[in-house]
């Protein structure tokens, strides 16, 4: 593993344009459960609460579960060493941007400035009637569902619900970043859903070297990955940070 870590750090150090692509696995060690797999949210919570059609029909019921899952816990979550190392790598120009499937805002909290959120963010609310946008701090979630100050329409978390399209800007920029990358650093994701699953493929097809950090092999491991670090995100990023003298 030491040899692989050294090879990975060498690729990052020599890269012209490295991009990080992250998923739930990078935030698990900050106490945020993944949606799928062992200890995943869908093992205890029915995903219907995050279906856009259900939200539109029963916003109160949907908001009660959303508040319990996200807003009662995410606000207290702190970035872990993997988030922090990515921010330091950006600061030192070892990584240009972060493309994330996470909605937890922990990359920004850690100090990353160039973050594209494929699935949106829990930090922002959007009016379902007039599209006004609010920081979550403006809403009093003791009264559900929260409503728009402008038109009194129902506010929705600005994250992608099931059967909703990916935000056009985030999708466009994420795929542009993947196409530009000469190194793509996958951290904590199997990217089982589209279009996220295509990002490593786009990078690989444009000549990028793929470094993958996951606790177990993914469907990328034997298809596009060049260096597979079978480690926790915090352990791998700590070691890469040490080798990059961060």
CATH superfamily of the largest domain, please? TPP-binding domain
Number of helices, where a helix is a run of at least 4 consecutive DSSP H or I residues:
8
Largest sheet: 6 strands, parallel
Count of β-strands: 9
- Along the chain, the helix and strand elements come as HEHHHEHEEEEHEHEEH
What share of residues is helical? 25-40%
Residue stretches low in confidence (pLDDT < 50, at least 5 long) are none
Shape by Cα distribution:
elongated
Please report the distance between the alpha carbons of the first and last residues: 20 Å
Sequence of strands across the biggest β-sheet: 3-2-1-7-8-9
- Quick one: CATH class of the largest domain? Alpha Beta
Query: Could you say what the CATH architecture of the largest domain is?
Result: 3-Layer(aba) Sandwich
Report the average pLDDT across residues. Answer: 91
**Approximate strand percentage:** 15-25%
CATH fold assignment of the largest domain = Rossmann fold
The domain count comes to 2
Query: Which class of secondary structure composition applies to the elements?
Result: alpha/beta
Taking Cα atoms only, what radius of gyration do you get, to the nearest Å?
A: 18 Å
């Amino acid at each position: 593993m030491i040899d692989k870590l050294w090879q990975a750090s060498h690729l990052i150090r020599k890269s012209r344009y490295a991009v990080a692509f992250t998923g739930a696995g990078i935030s698990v060690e900050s106490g945020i459960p993944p949606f799928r797999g062992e200890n995943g949210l869908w093992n205890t919570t029915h995903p219907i609460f995050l279906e856009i059609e259900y939200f539109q029909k029963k916003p109160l019921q949907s908001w009660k579960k959303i508040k319990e899952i996200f807003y009662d816990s995410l606000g207290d979550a702190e970035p872990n060493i993997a988030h922090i190392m990515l921010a330091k790598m950006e600061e030192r120009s070892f990584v240009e941007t972060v493309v994330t499937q996470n909605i937890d805002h922990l990359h920004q909290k850690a100090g990353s400035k160039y973050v594209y959120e494929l699935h949106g963010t829990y930090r922002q609310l959007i009016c379902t009637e007039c599209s006004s946008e609010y920081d979550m701090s403006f809403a009093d979630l003791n009264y559900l569902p929260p409503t728009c100050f402008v038109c009194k329409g129902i506010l929705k978390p600005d994250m992608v619900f099931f059967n909703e399209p990916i935000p056009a800007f985030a999708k466009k920029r994420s795929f542009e970043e993947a196409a530009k990358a000469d190194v793509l650093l996958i951290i904590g994701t199997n990217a089982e859903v589209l279009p996220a699953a295509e990002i490593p493929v786009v990078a690989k097809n444009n000549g990028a070297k793929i470094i993958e950090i996951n606790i177990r092999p993914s469907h990328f491991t034997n298809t596009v990955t060049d260096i597979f670090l079978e480690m926790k995100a915090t352990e791998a990023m700590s070691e890469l940070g040490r080798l990059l003298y961060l």
